[in-house]
Amino acid sequence: MAIINENYLKLQAGYLFPEIGRRVSEFIEANPDKKVIKMGIGDVTQPLVPSVVKAFHEGVEEMAKAETFKGYGPEQGYAFLREAIAENSYKTRGIDISANDIFVSDGSKCDTGNIQEIFGNENKIAICDPVYPVYADTTVMAGKTGVCQTNGYYDGIIYMPCTKENGFIPELPTEIPDLIFLCYPNNPTGTVASKEELKKWVDFAIANKSIILYDAAYESFIQDDEIPHSIYEIEGAKKVAIEFRSFSKTAGFTGTRCAYTVIPEELVAYDAEGKAHPVKPLWNRRQSTKFNGVSYPVQKAAASIFTEEGKNEVKKVIAYYMENARIMRESLQDAGYEVFGGENAPYVWVKTKNNTKSWDFFDKVLNEANVVGTPGSGFGPSGEGYFRFSAFADRENVLEAMERIKNLS
Ligand SMILES: *Cc1c(COP(=O)(O)O)cnc(C)c1O
């Protein structure tokens, strides 16, 4: 008799985006003449930049000739890409990360989920609320939790509410976690963490022998020079933090797939006897066994964003999205909303008026303004009463959507 992994039965139905889709389809069916503007899903809209397209083509051409053809590449990623990342993403900010500590992958979604596998199920996991749903769901799949309670919290996870009262930066939990998921710039709140705030977390992890799983998928959207792009800008972080980064939002790779995870040599975790073991060899073993690398043309395309031309082109696309975010922030403020994020991240997080529930606001915005956003409660119970607008849209649509929202009753 085949037995399933019963942890999967604990998962709540993937409710958020299917439910948004259902309500939007229903609306469009009933109102075929209305133009619906979608600012809901966190997917990019602008095409790959010319440098990326050129490198991608060249990679394919190399694969087409016997002399330059490539079969399996290194599971950790090609040296040219790992070195370009170490040089451009870290060294330029004064961070010493070796190319050998970088593992190229096909996505941060996979990496933030898969990383659970190299840590025992006894680990207590701390997760922000609201946040990217992958962290909690993969913790459940791994068997590190109990069942889901009626308030939407899984037994066994340490939830850290992030609200306007704490500036969307969680307080240090009273129950000591072993693994701590942090995501800054944050999805969905669009807020960032200062050096002081991150230092508090690194010191906490050092004191408790915990590990921080730092998702920096949106670091390239940071505009303020004082905001750290990497957890490794904090002293001591290399001993206690793993960092995840992705080309998805940075360079429009959501459909092309390339990301990377950094596990510094000095990062350790412990066995039952309390003996320290380096974590990097475990991840290397995991990736070498279960992953065969990202395709050569994609890695070549990814590396092209570190050329002078590539950097400038990518910067322009990011500036385009951040100008959208600025327009959204100002328009929503003018319309009387309390607005967070959107200054160093492509998400604008809005407090609904009069404590309207997130889903009621969703229906109002859809029905009256024909604009689709994301209900904050879908990212966690503390997101109730908030709403996320994504800046990954065409300018024309942003302007029209904001005009319509200003005219809401
Ligand atoms: C989009 C996103 C990612 C990127 O995932 P990929 O699998 O690399 O596309 C990672 N973390 C967060 C919080 C995101 O929103």
TrEMBL record:
The name this protein goes by in its record: LL-diaminopimelate aminotransferase
Highest rank taxon of the organism: Bacteria
Catalytic reactions on record: (2S,6S)-2,6-diaminopimelate + 2-oxoglutarate = (S)-2,3,4,5-tetrahydrodipicolinate + L-glutamate + H2O + H(+)
Keywords of this entry: Aminotransferase, Pyridoxal phosphate, Transferase
Annotated binding of substrate, by residue: 15, 42, 109, 132, 187, 292, 388
Pathway where it operates: Amino-acid biosynthesis; L-lysine biosynthesis via DAP pathway; LL-2,6-diaminopimelate from (S)-tetrahydrodipicolinate (aminotransferase route): step 1/1
Similarity-based family: Belongs to the class-I pyridoxal-phosphate-dependent aminotransferase family. LL-diaminopimelate aminotransferase subfamily.
Gene3D superfamilies in alphabetical order: Aspartate Aminotransferase, domain 1, Type I PLP-dependent aspartate aminotransferase-like (Major domain)
Pfam families named among the record's database cross-references: Aminotran_1_2
Domain Aminotransferase class I/classII large: 34-405
A GO term, aspect molecular function: pyridoxal phosphate binding
Sequence intervals crossing the membrane: none
GO biological processes: lysine biosynthetic process via diaminopimelate, diaminopimelate-aminotransferase pathway
Organism encoding this protein: Maribellus comscasis
Residues found modified as N6-(pyridoxal phosphate)lysine: 249
PANTHER family recorded: AMINOTRANSFERASE (PTHR43144)
Record bears the keyword Transferase: yes
Subunit structure: Homodimer.
InterPro entries referenced in this protein's UniProt entry, alphabetically: Aminotransferase_I/II_large (IPR004839), DapL/ALD1 (IPR019942), PyrdxlP-dep_Trfase (IPR015424), PyrdxlP-dep_Trfase_major (IPR015421), PyrdxlP-dep_Trfase_small (IPR015422)
Entry's EC annotation: 2.6.1.83
Binding site residues for pyridoxal 5'-phosphate: 72, 108-109, 132, 187, 218, 246-248, 257, 292
Keyword RNA-binding: no
Job of this protein: Involved in the synthesis of meso-diaminopimelate (m-DAP or DL-DAP), required for both lysine and peptidoglycan biosynthesis. Catalyzes the direct conversion of tetrahydrodipicolinate to LL-diaminopimelate.
Cofactors demanded by this protein: pyridoxal 5'-phosphate
